[in-house]
Amino acid sequence: MQYRSGSQIREDFLRFFEGKGHRRIHSSSLVPHNDPTLLFANAGMNQFKDVFLGSDVRTYSRATTSQKCVRAGGKHNDLENVGFTRRHHTFFEMLGNFSFGDYFKKDAIAFAWELLTSPDWFGIDKDKLYVTIFEGDAQTPRDDEAEQFWIEAGVPKSRIYELGAKDNFWQMGETGPCGPCSEIYYDLGLAASETGEDKPFGEDDQRYMEIWNLVFMQFDRHITPGGLPELTPLPKPSIDTGMGLERISCVLQGKLSNYQSDLFVPLIDAAIRLTGFSAMNAEEGSVSDAKGAASLRIIADHARAATFLIADGIQPANEGRGYVLRKILRRGIRHGRLLGQDQPFMHEMVHAVVAEMKVAYPELLDAEDRVAKTVLQEEQQFARTLQLGLARMTNEVLQDGAQAFSLYETFGMPLDFMTDAARDAGIEFDMVGFERAKEEEQKRARASWKGGSQKTASPAFASLDKTDFVGYTGLRADSAEVIALVKDGVGVQVLQPGDTGEVVLDRTSFYADSGGQVGDTGWLFPTDHTSTIAEVHGCTKPVAGVFAHKVTVKRPIAVGDKVDAVVDGAERTATTRNHTGTHLIQAALREVLGTHVKQAGSLNNRNRLRFDFSHFAQVADEELQEIEDIVNQQVLANTKVETFVDVPIDVAINEYKATALFGEKYGDKVRVVKIGDFSTELCGGTHTLATGEIGLLKLTGESSVSSGIRRVEAITGTGSLSEFRKGFALAKMASTLVGANDPEGFQAKLSAQEEELKKLRRELDQARMKSASASTENAAESAVEVKGIKVLAQKVSGLDRNQMRTLVDTLRTRLGSGVVVLGAATEDGKVALIAGVTKDLTGKVQAGKVVGAVAAKVGGKGGGRPDLAEAGGTDPSQLDAALASVPDTVGGLIA
Questions:
Q1: Burial letters for 70-96: b for 16+ Cβ neighbours within 10 Å, e otherwise?
Q2: d(CA 77, CA 444)
Q3: CA atoms within 13 A on the CB side of 444
Q4: How many CA atoms lie within 13 A of 35 on its CB side?
Q5: Nearest to 632, CA basis, from 679, 675, 689, 588
Q6: Annotated binding residue at 88?
Q7: From 209-218, 335-344, 444-453, 547-556, the region with the lowest mean pLDDT
Q8: Is 26 annotated as a binding residue?
Q9: Handedness of CA 149, 155, 161, 165 (dihedral sign)
Q10: Which of 137, 195, 146, 187 is nearest to 166 (CA)?
Q11: How many CB atoms lie within 10 A of CB 480?
Q12: Are 194 and 147 in contact (CB under 8 A)?
């Protein structure tokens, strides 16, 4: 085999299938479009899922892609294995070819064998390849067809092995498309063997590496009324294949590990340079360097994953996708620390990733600075978090696996840090408890992202012709034919008065929910308009191109009837103003805050607009004012809003420089909305003809949605007028109350009143503390002695937690040596508890255990440091009894 770079292999694969009549399709976002069942795109077929399910139709029947994928959470989670095996990755590219009801097994097998073995293409030695087929089970027969086609392609029968459903039967979910598959394996040779023994195929997973999986999608799996699964043949069997670019690069470059291919070597070199790691032959390293080599692989892999995830709009967060990104980044940072680098370095790895991947993914160039800044911010935050975690890493925590795991999850405290600390302290780390807590967390994560299986498109919608949408040019579609009626998900011939359901027309003026714009409302009339047939409450697209009108029926409507569809013009106009305003806001945000701003979500209805975007800090009032000014300058200019239809996607992005929306799915031809030289976006929504129709745009709020994502809200048109009237009335009332009628005077009056309030609050707090201190002046005398230790439990009132802490410190000082517990009933009907233990006693009794036991008696829980701990409770009626139990509790804890 001749040497091929990873980039050349990717291109050769795509070019081969283009030559076989396939449309080359660019990778979709790592954030699955409208698919709650997936955490990240994890296979090449994800972007075609709706096509396989029957809810989408493309203009082509053959496709080929190199799909960026991440497997680091939910069902597919390779994170912990990455770096310690030859083949696991968080980020990888899946090469694939797809047939949507076009060719099937025979051609798919012939294509695969030709690409792999032909001297004109990959030229792999046929004697190095093995093939598997499905052996069959009680539901599905053995795949004799596939075996015969492999033999016809040139594979000896002795190299075809049959495997069970676990390996060779694929299904999308509990229901939906499924079918047998064939896997192709490559023999890496004896040097790759796990044991050095010459074992046959099937007995050495390291030596025989799967490189390609061909899925033959030929059945629809559904559940019978009796609850049993049943397979029925699909009317149009399809093909879905997947071959990891990293694996095939390993093969074609004659390596034993994916990390030795040119896809990773430059990144590992960058990691060596940035961490200062100086081991010789780090990749092949000696035993003493094995951990260092693994750390370098982890840094290289995680830098790729983080770069692509952030470029696709994901921000580090404490939940969902952002949480997985944060774990990936922190794992990479931690391994840099293991190599001796305690300063930020991962953000520099971003530039190395972009340098290697920019040709295949040019969008990385625009995102490079934003991604690097995000990573640097996370590195700095992690350093602070790690410092906090170290302060909480007590012996007690190390001996409690659940608490240790909490430290691991919450603060990113490395497991090896904790086990080393336990060894140094001469105590045993609770690994069993740690692993138990970890497994419970993984179960929760799997449950939260397992999603529901997606069924094939409902027969009520799946077979319908696309609706002709005429709503861009008018609000009416006269003499539209009713082609389907749906009630409770089932197709019917007639809807009666009072029924709610869905009406599908052959043509409509109603816009359907899409791109953040809500669907239109309105009415269906008979052609003579003598009455109302139905009120339309909204419009959706259950299947691509099919518009379903959500209705309440006023008079009978039947399939085949002719109706006039009339949109509520006032609601459409108001929604249109807000949608066009959203475009202006995005352009203004990018002008004021920077081009790193990317849309992360939006909502446009008749009442308001909401726009979510990537940004690292709260938008200052001055910046919001400038954004509002810029938008309204465009409104007052009455700039023409132009729409260009059926623009090739490449032309729209590269020539029009149109901004694409985050997470949106686009076809080959797109609609471009251009507002002068100020804004150009891909958008299918409805818009004003000129910006002046917006009237006026008023920003009404700015807030945080999640880490790195901000939100602005605004109103336009008459909504702005109402807001100004409300503001004027409020200002008038305030000026009367405060005695000032201009902003400066108003602010001065408020500031003076605020200072007076602060002074009164301070005086009140001081009075409360003085009173509490006086009431406890002789409290030390009421302490009881338990096993030689003074114990004081006291009920207090009128103090907040800070004041209670101060009082605990005072009482500990008065005792000299002992245990103090304070309890209070709070204003919201709950209980606050604080326990303190003098330093000389923390080896015998810990505050966290004391307060936890007392809290249990008032319906709560809590914990903290050995010398100071807090808790809460929900049952104030038990507070006195709980405090009375403190001496016994302390006695029970003393060995």
A1: bbbbbeebbbeebbeebbbbbbbbbbb
A2: 13
A3: 8
A4: 29
A5: 588
A6: no
A7: 444-453
A8: no
A9: negative
A10: 137
A11: 26
A12: no
Residue 77 pLDDT more than 80? Answer: no
Q: What is the pLDDT of residues 95-110, one digit of tens each?
A: 999 999 999 999 999 9
% of the chain exceeding 70 in pLDDT: 90
Within 13 Å of residue 413, how many CA atoms lie on the same side as its CB? 24
Of the two residues 283 and 111, the one the predictor is more confident about is 111
Tell whether the model's pLDDT for residue 47 goes beyond 60: yes
Give the separation between CA 579 and CA 575, rounded to whole angstroms: 6
What confidence tens digit (pLDDT) does each residue in 122-159 have?
Answer: 999 999 999 999 998 888 889 999 999 999 999 999 99
**Tokens encoding 446:** 């799997």
Q: Which of 183, 180, 194, 120 is nearest to 155 (CA)?
A: 183
The residues near 94 (Cβ < 8 Å, ≥ 6 apart) are: 43, 44, 65, 66, 67, 69, 242, 243, 244, 245
Q: What is the pLDDT of residue 452?
A: 39
10: enclosing H helix or E strand: helix 6-18
Least confident span in 19-28, 391-400, 467-476, 843-852: 391-400
**Minimal CA–CA distance to 207: which of 180, 184, 188?**
188
Greatest mean pLDDT among 212-226, 643-657, 872-886 lies in 872-886
As a whole number of Å, the end-to-end CA separation of the chain is 72
Residue 292: Cβ within 10 Å count: 21
Tell me if 683 is assigned to a ligand binding site. Answer: yes
Which residue type is seen at 430? D
Q: Is 276 left (phi over 0), alpha (psi -120 to 50) or beta?
A: left
Is 50 exceeded by the pLDDT of residue 448?
no
Beta strands in 789-886 (DSSP E): 789-795, 819-825, 831-837, 861-864, 868-873
Position 489 confidence tier, pLDDT thresholds 50, 70, 90: confident
Dig out the tokens for 89 from the structure: 């990755």
Q: What residue has token string 């170290």?
A: 390
Cα separation, 534 vs 549, in Å, equals: 10
Question: Each residue of 100-115: b (16+ CB within 10 Å) or e?
Answer: bebbbbebbbbbbbbb
Q: Tell me if 89 is assigned to a ligand binding site.
A: no
Domain architecture of the chain: domains with CATH: 6-257 (3.30.930.10), 264-390 (no CATH), 392-449 (no CATH), 459-567 (2.40.30.130), 578-719 (3.30.980.10), 783-893 (3.10.310.40)
